[in-house]
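FAQ: What does a ligand-bound record look like?

Like this one, built around iron/sulfur cluster:
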Amino acid sequence: MHNRTRRSRTTALTTLSPLAKEVRKVSAEFLSHNPHSPFLIADLCVGLFESLDAFYDQNPPPCELACGPGCSFCCYNQVRATLPEIVTIVRYIQKTTSEFERQLLSQNIQRHNQRIRGISDLDIPRDLPCVFLKKSRRSIYEVRPFACRAWHALNRSDCLRAFEEKNPLAPVEQYPARRQAALDFVCGLTRALDHVRLPSGDIILPLGIEAVLPFSLDHLEPGWLPLFQIHKPGNFPNTA
Ligand code: SF4
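The answer part, i.e. the structure of the complex:
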C-alpha cells in the first residue's frame, strides 16, 4: 500500500488532472488574499468539502454504497490530514462544543496519541477507534477529512473482514472514481498551498488536532507549520 499510495499522490501531484487543476486554481486565488488567516484557510476547506460532495451527487456510483449511519469499522483506520483540514475541524470543535467538552476531548486525544506517537501508520493498533467516533457515530461528520470522504465500500463484509483481521491492507471493493475525485481535491489543494508557500504535508489526524486545538485560530502559530512539512503515505488506503 505505502509505495502504491506514495506513487498515487506523488504521480497525481506531478500530473494534475483537470479536476485537480481547477481545485488548485480556485484555492490559490482564494488563499492569495490572506494565506496566513486560519479562518480563511478553513473557509476554503469547507468550500472544497461542499464542492466534493456536489461532485459526488452529480456522479453517483453505479450501484448503492454499503455505507450508512452507525456503521464504523472503517473508523478504526487512522487517517492523515493537511493543515487546512485540521484548522477546519478545530474551528468546528471550538464553535460546537463547550469548554468542558473540549477538556474531555483533549484528555481523550492525549491518551490516544500516547499510543500512536512515533509509530508508523501501518503499525498503529487496530483496536483504536477515531477520537471523533462516539457510539458508532462520527462527531465531526460535517467537517470530516478528505480521506474519510474518499473511503467507502460496495460490500460491508469487506470492511468487517478487514476489521476482524485488524488488517488495514485488506482489500475493500470500492468505486475508484469516487476515491480519485477526493484525491484530485487534495492534490489541487496541496499544490495551492505550495503556491502560497504554506506547508502542504499531512499528519495523523489526532496528532494534528492536539497541536492546534489549544489555540484561538486568529493567526497561524509558527509551531504548527513544521508538523505539515512532509507528506507521508497512508492517506488513501488501497482498494480491491
Ligand atoms: S466504508 Fe465500510 S465500514 Fe465504513 S461506513 Fe462504509 S461499509 Fe461501513
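Follow-up question: can I read anything off the structure? Yes, for example: The chain has one domain: 18-228.
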